[in-house]
Input
Amino acid sequence: MRPVTDGSRVRLTFLGAAREVTGSCYLVETPDARFIVDCGMFQGGGNPGRRNRARFGFDPRGLDFVLLTHAHIDHSGLLPRLAAQGYTGPVYATPATCDLLQVMLVDAAHVQEKEAEWKSKSRARHRTAAEPLYTGAHALRALKLLQPVEYGATLEPHPAVRCVFRDAGHILGSAIIEAEVAAKGRKRKIVFSGDIGQSLRPLVRDPARVTEADALLVESTYGNRLHKSLDDTVRELEEAIGETISRKGGNVVVPAFAVGRTQELLYLLAELHRAGRLPRMDIYVDSPMALKATEVTLRHTRILDPEAAELLRWLRGNRAGPRIRFVQDLEESIGLHRVKSGALIISASGMCDAGRIKHHLRHNLARPECAILITGFQAANTLGRRIVDGAKEVRIFGIPVAVRARVYTIGGLSAHADQRGLLAWLGHFKRAPAHTFVVHGESGTADIFAAAVRKELKWRGVTVPQPRDRVEI
Output
């Protein structure tokens, strides 16, 4: 099926991450080409299971290609489903993103299969089996479609489209995508910000500057607030760990995304250890995927921040470094439940809704001598969001658990730029794009950021699209 747009117009459809943070997916159509940018999974509120199983807003077999900003599941997690429904074309992403997806999509498929298995057992008496969203075979099929693209290289995935991937400074391999789209001899430049990282952060480099666009899609995850400085954030991290480990004699539990956040935390913990600012403790990374993602990071040191690369060299050659143990098998993970003090446990998922972190919360959340460090965005209706919002009790595996541990929200560790950072990135544009679409933020947050762009930068044509909106540019 060919694109339906007539004349020289280019049509853009917002299929996800419109007035919400997750489910990133944008359909671009011209008279000659049809492609999507991102194919992300919905997470958190709004019945994500139903939405992830819904039909795509396009025929997968009619796409010419796919562009991917980065590896986080809310941007990539439905690629196996896309492949399962007949898409066989290329998926273009940076080399580091391609490597991370080898880990993440297989893991995501495993989670889907295990959840379906659990649901099938619970339905056994009704003799109905649950089907996984997708399988490991579907994930492998999607991985075969990946085509690596270096930062700064010109990609021509179609005669009517030219693209360049720029470093977004969000996680390893994350990209801002500049797409020049031709329709009937007329060209438009559409820029997809992906997730924009904070400047002067450890591990990854600063976001690349973009200066021109006819249409811009810009994220707004933290568009309504300001983060603490890195120095203040590190001091807060140091105080939270010292208070819990040294004075209260408890454990510190850190829900963290296996890709990006875990590696940044390890960097900061190593820096604090090298400076003699941490008490004696054991650091456990209880996430098989985090180990694999860390190994991928070590293969891509050339695109890391130079200071991060230097610290990695120090860690490799210094036996006096911090005691870090990557926990792999399930028995060892269960054994951590018997550790009552002196441990810092980093585990996925970052929003506390799946994975081993739920077990560690169950065993530490009710203990007043322990601490929970929330270091990333918590989507609406997730377990992590309920904890951040001050719930006195939460349910984990159907069991009520009191919240007595101290909860620290360390927003300065976010991999997303705050309002000031986003406005600074937009400030590099030589002139306002004709169309600026504020996406990838909860509804109220996106509205606040759009108003800030209009006020601070004096830009016109700034809108917050609704889900499934279609616009022509």
About this structure: The chain is about 30% helix and 20% strand. Confidence is low (pLDDT under 50) at residues 1-5.
